[in-house]
Amino acid sequence: MEQTQSKDTQTAYEDHPDKGMVIDKLEELGIQYKIFEHEPVFTVEQGLHLHDIIPGGHCKNLFLKDKKGELWLISAIESTKIDLKKIEPLIASARLSFASPERLEENLKVKPGSVTPFALIHDEYNKINVILDSNLFDYEQVNFHPLHNHESLMLTPNDLVLYIKAVGYQPKIVDLSGKSY
């Protein structure tokens, strides 16, 4: 593991107390990763300048609920335009909307702006449906927050799938780019 830091950080959220669980799981699985420290990033727009210093695909994550109350975590390349109405049939859901910050913290133990597939380690009942954008696999490396929004953790898309499976999920891989809808 190599850690790269930039000291221009005004931390909105402190290190998540369970970040070590994620790192331990990655190391247990033999997954190579790299962590980049940066200022807190709450939106895709706020993180666009990071492309100059952090290689790979930069990702966004949506924590959603549907009309039946099922929960969904969708991870995609940040430039992917996600139309919730159009992806509903692709994932066999209806009336998707953003889940509340309270539901996010209750299920994934993270705050808005820090949604990440690494937080699935907290969902001990496996009640979240996991969707990965197939376009993640167009990149050698992809970046996600490691439970807080002032770092990015880079790994391969295949290693991300390995991690997700190791914490009890079978992610569904879907083309969210709009080409298939």
3D structure, described in words:
The chain has helices spanning 19-28, 44-47, 84-87, 101-108, 157-166, and strands at 2-4, 34-37, 57-65, 71-77, 97-98, 128-133, 142-144, 151-155, 172-174. With 181 residues, it is α/β, with parallel strands linked by helices. The chain has a single domain, classed as YbaK protein. Strands 1, 2, 3, 4, 5, 6, 7, 8 and 9 form a nine-stranded mixed β-sheet that branches. It is globular, with a radius of gyration of 15 Å. The protein starts with a strand and ends in a 7-residue tail after the last strand.
Based on the model shown, name its key terms.
single chain; 181 residues; alpha/beta; YbaK protein; 9-stranded mixed sheet; 9 strands; 23% strand; globular
Which helices and strands occur, and which strands form pairs?
Elements: E1 2-4, H1 19-28, E2 34-37, H2 44-47, E3 57-65, E4 71-77, H3 84-87, E5 97-98, H4 101-108, E6 128-133, E7 142-144, E8 151-155, H5 157-166, E9 172-174
Parallel strand pairs: 1-2, 3-7, 4-6, 6-9
Antiparallel strand pairs: 2-8, 3-4, 3-5, 7-8
Output the structural class: alpha/beta
Instruction: From the alpha carbons, calculate the radius of gyration and give it in angstroms.
Output: 15 Å
Corresponding CATH superfamily? YbaK/aminoacyl-tRNA synthetase-associated domain
Architecture, CATH level 2?
Answer: Alpha-Beta Complex
In total, the number of domains comes to 1
Shape: globular
CATH topology: YbaK protein
Give the averaged pLDDT, no decimals: 87
Instruction: State which percent range the strand residues make up.
Output: 15-25%
Order of helices and strands: EHEHEEHEHEEEHE
Biggest sheet character: 9 strands, mixed
Contiguous helical run count: 5
Distance between the termini: 39 Å
Tell me the name of the CATH class: Alpha Beta
Low-confidence stretches: 1-13
Helical proportion, percent range: 10-25%
What is the tally of beta strands? Answer: 9
